[in-house]
């Protein structure tokens, strides 16, 4: 079972200490851990058998990302998921990506625009011009999949990293991203009408991030419960205060809800309800993740305000995950639209 | 209740505004606006400007160089200072040690320490918390043992804010091992240059260095540095807790943060869309505006109540809880307003051409994380609620 071996690999080789060491400075992840994940098939689990993988269903994605989140894994698996999904949709070869021979990142959103209809990058005679902003996994990527606008349509292109200007930087919650600046960069057209494929990749990505958040929440909760039992003030464990007990139990119920919505969204992948279910999922997980992060810090007290405490790195990831691929409000709008459409 | 300011108060506001325009360094103000770390020098320069103007110590007696302001004047000053992006004055000397010396110090102590606080000779830090003594401060273990004319101090303080810049630290230390823990604590002034004092940095969640550990190993402190009597430290700490809650609600900072967020939200993006036209975002911001407007009045009401009672009482717990909630909500929204662009670590790599958000917002996420401290320090929200339940409601 992949989930078990993945969890074992991460338990052995990945913990918050690794993240502190590698995730905040170039190359923003651990190449050794990346190689180990590739070797054990973590990427293959994200793609179906017809396209060179051995998974690809909603539950495969959720399982992998929950494990990554629980271990606060700094590896750029999300960009690989998005890229694999797009390559498959375009009928292109995802083999080199799955084998770890080529690292891909996906350029979607642009400066100060967070919606697909705010994309302005243009494709002209096989050359791309525009700027993709906060491209996760951009540092060290060999190839970029770039979404461009052609009138009302979105098109998908592949660009070699050497043909783009890539400005890498660290994220506040760890991991690397980049500005990708394209100045008549030579590109290979993968899909002329990529709107549906892009939305599908976004859905898969939002499901993955929700599952990652779920894993992170579970660990943050466990760290907090441990600390409540261990830390003594006023001659007794701080966890003996009912005020804190109730709040911790509220987190348990919220996380139970988050798990349920992840299950729902995973089960709806590939159905007509995919997009709306994923939006419900990302909305709820974004909300709950922030609450768990803030409460974990507050109930730890000062110690959680330090870089050295693992819980602070979980908290940062849990809060910032909401900003990726549409925040809680963005996805609530999509849920609302479903109600208003009838 | 009359909520308008008197003509004298309005004139005072104009004076403060002019002072900020003339005497606050624009570089310092820009750093504050952009959430960048202030150097020791930046803070000292602002301190010196206020000192020169006679505005450094609003609540000290005039005989010691205090400004003799009313709480309302103090409130106006705080509002204007925040509007001008002035740095927060480091409170440890002016607002914490000084009131203790006025009430419990000897004449000699007042004459020596107070002028040095005013003119910036001595930078003070606060040595209360220890690894094992946070909310339960009386659990502190740092020992001071009498040896002739000295105390020999051994132990560890932690979370010492800006201790890396400090010349002196005021500490709560244990001078009696038996009896109730509260009864064996003393208030001791320690020169940080004394052999045996070691300061080590603590890195905070967002990467910054503002707090420290302070290790005390066989530190010899003259007996004359004791404030109040031996074992009177708890009384002093409690006095300080209820008397020095200046600007506790941070209304000025919140007002400033609200205005700048609103400006950003009204600014059209390249697509022509404005964040403020997103009804979900607008609802979030409007809710905060309502809270903030109420907060301003709550603050004034309690400031005025404190003015007539002579000292802020349990009301200060209400101001702290609600004031911090509003500030943290604003920090949350300022981070959200940037979407994915909030996530990059502020760094030189992202200046100039590579900048993805305006400089004054690049630190929004860092500030959100850093300000989670506000509901933890100075008596956590939970401890404030325990105080209110007991002292106000008799539960
Ligand atoms: C950035 C920062 C700067 C600081 N600066 C200074 C400084 O300059 N000088 C200084 O002396 N100290 C400073 N402090 C320390 C601060 O005052 C303590 O962090 C605070 O007192 C809380 O203590 P603690 O962190 O040990 O948490 P703990 O006391 O261990 O509390 C952990 C959690 O348990 C809760 N809790 C504890 N007891 C109860 C109870 N009875 N009922 C309900 N809940 C309870 C707390 O509210 C908190 O949520 C600073 C702290 C921070 C984070």
UniProtKB/TrEMBL annotation, chain A:
InterPro entries: Acyl-CoA_Oxase/DH_mid-dom_sf, AcylCo_DH-like_C, AcylCo_DH/oxidase_C, AcylCoA_DH/ox_N, AcylCoA_DH/ox_N_sf, AcylCoA_DH/oxidase_NM_dom_sf
Family assignment from sequence similarity: Belongs to the acyl-CoA dehydrogenase family.
Recorded coiled-coil stretches: none
Lineage: Bacteria, Pseudomonadati, Pseudomonadota, Alphaproteobacteria, Rhodobacterales
Cross-referenced Gene3D superfamilies: Acyl-CoA dehydrogenase/oxidase, N-terminal domain, Butyryl-CoA Dehydrogenase, subunit A, domain 2, Butyryl-CoA Dehydrogenase, subunit A, domain 3
Ranges for domain Acyl-CoA dehydrogenase/oxidase C-terminal: 197-318
GO molecular function list: acyl-CoA dehydrogenase activity; flavin adenine dinucleotide binding
Organism, as annotated: Loktanella atrilutea
Cofactors: FAD
Domain Acyl-CoA dehydrogenase/oxidase N-terminal: start-end pairs: 1-91
Alphabetically ordered keywords of this record: FAD, Flavoprotein, Oxidoreductase
Name by which UniProt lists this protein: Acyl-CoA dehydrogenase
Automatic annotation (TrEMBL), chain B:
InterPro entries: Acyl-CoA_Oxase/DH_mid-dom, Acyl-CoA_Oxase/DH_mid-dom_sf, AcylCo_DH-like_C, AcylCo_DH/oxidase_C, AcylCoA_DH/ox_N, AcylCoA_DH/ox_N_sf, AcylCoA_DH/oxidase_NM_dom_sf, Mycobact_Acyl-CoA_DH
GO molecular function: flavin adenine dinucleotide binding; oxidoreductase activity, acting on the CH-CH group of donors
Cross-referenced Pfam families: Acyl-CoA_dh_1, Acyl-CoA_dh_M, Acyl-CoA_dh_N
Gene Ontology CC: one annotated term: plasma membrane
Alphabetical keyword list: FAD, Flavoprotein, Oxidoreductase
Start and end residues of each Acyl-CoA dehydrogenase/oxidase N-terminal domain: 6-120
Record-annotated membrane-spanning stretches: none
Domain Acyl-CoA oxidase/dehydrogenase middle: 125-218
All copies of domain Acyl-CoA dehydrogenase/oxidase C-terminal, residue ranges: 231-393
Essential cofactor(s): FAD
Family to which this protein belongs: Belongs to the acyl-CoA dehydrogenase family.
UniProt name for this protein: Acyl-CoA dehydrogenase
């Amino acid at each position: 079972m992949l989930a078990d071996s993945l969890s074992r690999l991460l338990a052995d080789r990945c913990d918050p200490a690794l993240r502190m060491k590698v995730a905040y400075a170039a190359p923003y992840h651990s190449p050794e851990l990346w190689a180990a994940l590739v070797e054990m098939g973590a990427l293959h689990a994200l793609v179906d058998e017809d396209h060179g993988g051995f998974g690809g269903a909603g539950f495969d994605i959720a399982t992998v990302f929950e494990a990554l989140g629980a271990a606060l894994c700094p590896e750029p698996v999300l960009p690989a998921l998005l890229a694999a999904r797009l390559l498959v949709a375009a009928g292109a070869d995802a083999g080199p990506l799955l084998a770890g021979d080529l690292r891909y990142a996906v350029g979607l959103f642009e400066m100060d625009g967070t919606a697909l209809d705010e994309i302005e990058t243009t494709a002209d005679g096989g050359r791309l011009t525009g700027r993709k902003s906060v491209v996760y996994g951009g540092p060290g990527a060999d190839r970029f999949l770039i979404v461009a606008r052609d009138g009302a349509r979105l098109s998908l292109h592949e660009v070699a990293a050497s043909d783009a200007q890539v400005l890498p930087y660290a994220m506040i919650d760890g991991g690397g991203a980049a500005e990708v600046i394209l100045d008549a960069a030579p590109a290979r057209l993968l899909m002329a009408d990529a709107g549906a494929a892009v939305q599908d990749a976004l859905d898969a990505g939002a499901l993955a991030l929700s599952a990652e958040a779920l894993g992170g929440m579970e660990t943050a909760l466990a760290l907090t419960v441990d600390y409540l039992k261990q830390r003594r003030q006023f001659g007794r464990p701080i966890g003996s205060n009912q005020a804190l007990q109730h709040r911790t139990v509220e987190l348990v119920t919220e996380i139970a809800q988050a798990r349920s919505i992840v299950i729902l969204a995973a089960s709806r992948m590939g159905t007509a309800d995919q997009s709306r279910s994923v939006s419900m999922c990302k909305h709820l997980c974004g909300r709950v993740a922030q609450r768990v992060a803030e409460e974990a810090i507050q109930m730890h007290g000062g110690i959680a305000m330090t870089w050295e405490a693992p819980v602070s790195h979980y908290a940062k990831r849990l809060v910032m995950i909401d900003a990726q691929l549409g925040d809680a409000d963005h996805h609530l709008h999509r849920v609302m639209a479903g109600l208003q459409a009838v | 209740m009359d909520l308008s300011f008197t003509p004298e108060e309005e004139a005072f506001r104009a004076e403060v505004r002019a002072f900020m325009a003339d005497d606050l360094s624009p570089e310092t103000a820009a750093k504050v606006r952009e959430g960048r770390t202030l150097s020791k020098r930046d803070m000292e320069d602002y301190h010196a400007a206020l000192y020169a103007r006679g505005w450094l110590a609003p609540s000290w007696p005039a005989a010691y160089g205090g400004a003799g302001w009313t709480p309302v004047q103090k409130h106006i000053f705080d509002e204007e200072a925040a509007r001008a992006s002035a740095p927060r004055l480091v409170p440890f000397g002016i607002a914490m040690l000084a009131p203790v010396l006025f009430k419990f110090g000897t004449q000699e102590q007042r004459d020596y320490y107070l002028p040095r606080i005013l003119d910036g000779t001595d930078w003070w830090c606060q040595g209360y918390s220890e690894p094992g003594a946070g909310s339960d401060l009386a659990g502190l273990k740092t020992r001071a043992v009498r040896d002739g004319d000295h105390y020999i101090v051994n132990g560890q303080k932690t979370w010492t804010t800006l201790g890396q810049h400090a010349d002196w630290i005021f500490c709560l230390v244990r001078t009696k091992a038996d009896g109730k823990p509260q009864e064996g604590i003393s208030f001791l002034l320690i020169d940080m240059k004394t052999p045996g004092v070691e300061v080590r940095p603590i890195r905070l969640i967002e990467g910054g260095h503002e707090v420290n550990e302070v290790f005390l190993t066989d530190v010899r402190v003259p007996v004359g540095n004791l404030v109040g009597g031996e074992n009177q430290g708890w009384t002093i700490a409690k006095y300080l807790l209820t008397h020095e809650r200046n600007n506790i609600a941070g209304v000025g900072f919140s007002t400033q943060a609200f205005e700048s967020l609103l400006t950003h939200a009204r600014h059209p993006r390249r697509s022509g869309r404005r964040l403020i036209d997103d009804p979900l975002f607008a609802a979030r911001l409007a809710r905060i505006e309502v809270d903030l407007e109420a907060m301003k009045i709550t603050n004034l009401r309690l400031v005025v109540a404190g003015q007539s009672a002579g000292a802020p009482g349990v009301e200060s717990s209400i101001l702290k809880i609600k004031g911090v909630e509003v500030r943290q909500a604003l920090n949350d929204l300022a981070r959200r307003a940037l979407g994915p662009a909030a996530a990059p670590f502020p760094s030189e790599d992202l200046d100039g051409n590579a900048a993805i958000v305006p400089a004054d917002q690049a630190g929004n996420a860092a500030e959100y994380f850093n300000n989670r401290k506000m509901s933890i320090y100075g008596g956590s929200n939970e401890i404030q609620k325990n105080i209110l339940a007991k002292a106000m409601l008799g539960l």
